[in-house]
Amino acid sequence: MDSRNGLGAPQETSDADIESFFESAPPLRDSFNVSRKVKEFIERNSRSFENGRSTRVVCVTSGGTTVPLEQRCVRFIDNFSSGHRGATSTEYFVKAGYAVIFLHRRGTCQPYCGSLPEDSLLDCFELTEDSTVQACPSHAEAVKRAIRNHHAAVEEGLLLKLPYTTIFEYLQILRVIAISMRSIGSCGMFYLAAAVSDFYVPWESMAEHKIQSAAGPLDMRLAPVPKMLSVLRNKWAPAAFCISFKLETDPKILLEKADKALRKYKMHMVVANELSTRNEEVVVISSSDRIAVRREHQNEDVEKHLIDLLVERHAVYIEKSSTVALTGEVV
Ligand code: 9Z3
User: Fold this and answer.
1) Residue 2 to residue 304: CA distance in whole angstroms
2) Beta-carbon count within 10 A of 175 CB
3) What is the pLDDT of residue 47?
4) Given the DSSP bridges, would you call strands 188-192 and 241-248 parallel, antiparallel or unpaired?
5) CA 248–ligand 1 middle distance (angstroms)
6) Distance from Cα 308 to the centre of ligand 1, integer Å
């Protein structure tokens, strides 16, 4: 989607827009603890070595963002995303040895839960005659696998889960993560699968209480959300490897829009996906090529092949960045 200023003209984001977005946003709850957890997670993983190299860290964003219409929020505008892409990708990144900061929308899909039924607590467990809880035989294997894999990732210190709901929380936490990731330079990666709102109601112009329907039709002016991809690339974490996603419903414009995003936001790669086929096929666009990534059969995740490709490209990027650092050569 293009950002439009409500008058039909596309708008560029300035530093002032970004500052004013953060200044006017409601303060992030628990911000001290979020910053501490992120900092400790990155520091611990940058000190740990696997196969002779320090652990790579990826921030995976996942789920839609809500735009509250009232400060004491009853109603909100939402963006579509189940969180499946982010949750499944997290599993493959952990498998590839990455430490993952999983910045996810509350209530969306979680890593290692893909093979569990939707209401996993009530459907996977039952009470025995003596009132102890046990896994239902039909789901026992899936439950054991989910618990085992999840605990392993957390105990090895490779998974930090941070929840958000609103566009304000999402961007505030993303900024905290990005600024902390600066310390690991090219070993950091951003995998921005969250479906981020293009428009929002600025906090200071938002109604405090529930909007009353008796007042008749509702006119509301939404402001464009400042494009944070540029500031992420240019200021917050300029050496990190950045992958954004482009979602369209019209396949005719998808690749062109993804190409445009690659150039405009100086992304290293853009993953183009169409809504109806997003679990079967994506096209990964970089400045040098376009690669179609498909799942090979129905029971396979397209993310398996996607993450293999990104991990490989990230390794090349780190290698090139260290050559530049050693020789001053421009690659
Ligand atoms: C995506 O394109 C994701 O792949 C999906 C995944 C949201 C389609 P699900 O969560 O779906 O598995 O159900 N994410 C990014 C979508 C987006 O908002 N991109 C912006 C755009 O297209 C750029 S940041 O303009």
Assistant:
1) 30
2) 19
3) 87
4) parallel
5) 9
6) 20
Residue 231's contacts (CB-CB under 8 Å, 6 or more residues apart) are 13, 15, 18
Angstrom distance (rounded) from CA 269 to CA 224: 24
Whole-number pLDDT of residue 329 = 59
Residue 6 confidence (pLDDT) above 50: no
Q: Is 303 left (phi over 0), alpha (psi -120 to 50) or beta?
A: alpha
Query: What's the gap between Cα 47 and its chain centre?
Result: 24
- Residue showing tokens 């400045």: 287
Find the 19 Cα to ligand 1 centroid distance in Å: 25
Burial class (CB in 10 A: 0-12, 13-18, 19+), 284: buried
Q: What is the 3-state secondary structure (H, E, C) of 24-54?
A: HCCCCCCHHHHHHHHHHHHHHHHHCEECCEE
Can you give the pTM of this predicted structure? Answer: 0.93
Q: Are strands 269-274 and 241-248 parallel, antiparallel or unpaired?
A: parallel
With contact defined as beta carbons under 8 Å apart, do 186 and 318 qualify? yes
Instruction: Say how many Å lie between the CA of residue 236 and the centre of ligand 1.
Output: 22
Pocket of ligand 1 (CB under 6 A): 1, 81-85, 193, 195-196, 244-247, 273, 278
Which ligand 1 atom is the nearest neighbour of the CA of 248? 22
Report angle CA 186, 191, 197 to the nearest 5 degrees.
Answer: 130
* Contact indicator for 57, 188 with CB cutoff of 8 Å: yes
Distance CA 248, CA 8 (A): 19
Atom of ligand 1 nearest to the CA of 109: 10
